[in-house]
Amino acid sequence: MTMIYNLFLRFAIAVFFVTFFPLYPLYADDYTIGSGDVLTITVYDHDELKNTVRVSENGNIVFPLIGVVHVGGQKIPEAAANIKSLLEDGYIIHPQVNIFIDQFKSKKAIILGQVLNPGLIELQGPTSLLELISQAGGLKETAGETATIKRADKTITIDLNGLIERGDSTKNILIHGGDTVSISKQGTCYITGEVNQPNAYPCGKGTTVLKLISLAGGFNGKASDSSIRIIRVIDGEKKIFEDVELNTSLQADDIVVVPESFF
After folding, report:
1. Which residue among 39, 54, 185, 240 is least crowded, i.e. fewest CB within 10 A of its CB?
2. What is this structure's pTM?
3. Inside any domain, residue 126
4. 113-131: per-residue pLDDT in tens?
């Protein structure tokens, strides 16, 4: 199953990169602070103000000098600017505030469909789509070509072939808390007749008659390669395409018939 092997090899390489080259520096500014997160807050040249705090259920923290500060629902730069503004109001001249998230506890996402361990996953910091798939045990052999991300305000469709096979990093988007990610199931095509292993095989985008024949172990000694038929159901009606070329693209549920040669 060369096609499946290549898919999982590319996935393994992609997971290697997101494992050994963390996404925190890239995505930290995009993270929205939530209840349960643990923050370490520092003010340059004021070591006495360094503080580690847990965000309360209502999104508040307590910080020296300024007391209760609401940070829930804010991005990291926004929360830092808020604390800076409060410190400047009679306490410190031009403070430089930095926030680092020690523990990410507020964000969870659901992943469903063709992964080994579907379910609820706690997002341990900024988490990309590939990382989420990896945390769910990776893709099943039956995984299809798309990941659908349902978010509160929109639905996003990701081309997994582009992400995994072609390495398009722009498709490796950041997962948000509350997202539901669904990995599609790969279609199936059927091949019968004069091939070595007639059976059902994965049939994704770009699968041709020739590729399906290859998956089926190739022609046997009695096959006719010039009279191949495709049986396809369109709008509930069966249609038969005669004498198709080997480079003809297939659709899910197609049946390819390889006839016997009489010469």
Report:
1. 240
2. 0.59
3. yes
4. 999 999 999 887 778 999 9
